[in-house]
Design a protein that fits this description.
The protein contains five helices and no strands. The protein has 180 residues and is mainly α. The chain has a single domain, classed as Up-down Bundle (ABC transporter transmembrane region fold). Helix 2 runs antiparallel to helix 3 and helix 2 crosses helix 5. The N terminus is likely disordered. Its main location: membrane. One of its GO terms (cellular component) is plasma membrane. Pfam families: ABC_membrane.
Length: 180
């Protein structure tokens, strides 16, 4: 947290009782995302993987539709094996890509959280003793630990789900415009 400001506390109030305003939440998110630029190549890799995941998730229903609309009415049952193999390969590839995507996001998230924890530690080292007289150590530890854990959940799971759903929505919307 640059400038000696820690977004987890407010001047004149105990850090444990501070309720973040909308502005401070955006400030916290902005500071968190400012730690990510050194990892943009990983972020772009995650976006590419998400695009492939969206395409694969969409390909399975399309293969099923093709089977129901074309293969079964035309009684080309020999093609069912190939379509079944295609669906199985798509599902396996989907599982592998989801694993790697989660791994990369977790790794980037853990590094960002480590940076945040180090910044908080450095900031706490610069605080006056008066601050520690006003605020109980347990309250401070609880507040800082809970805030960092919430950020960790945001980075590793919530953000991944939101990004994946957004990319999938865009891919499906483009496809729907294409076929209509």
């Amino acid at each position: 947290m640059s400038g000696g400001h820690i977004p987890f506390s407010h001047k004149g109030r105990s850090a444990i009782h501070a309720i973040p305003s909308k502005g401070s939440i955006w400030l916290m998110l902005k500071q968190m995302f400012n730690r990510v630029p050194s990892k943009w190549k990983f972020c772009s890799l995650v976006l590419c993987i998400m695009l492939f995941i969206s395409l694969l998730e969409f390909s399975i229903p399309q293969l099923t539709q093709f089977t129901i609309d074309k293969i079964i009415p035309e009684k080309r049952y020999d093609s069912l094996i190939w379509i079944g193999a295609g669906i199985l390969c798509a599902a396996i590839l989907l599982a592998i890509l989801n694993y790697f995507n989660s791994y990369i996001v977790s790794k980037v998230g853990q590094k960002a959280i480590m940076d945040i924890r180090n910044s908080m530690y450095e900031h706490i080292q610069t605080l006056d003793m008066k601050f520690f007289d006003k605020n109980r150590t347990g309250d401070l530890m609880s507040r800082l630990t809970n805030d960092v854990n919430l950020l960790q959940q945001l980075i590793s799971s919530s953000m991944l789900q939101v990004l994946t759903d957004t990319v999938t929505f865009i891919a499906v919307a483009v496809y729907m415009l294409f076929i209509n």
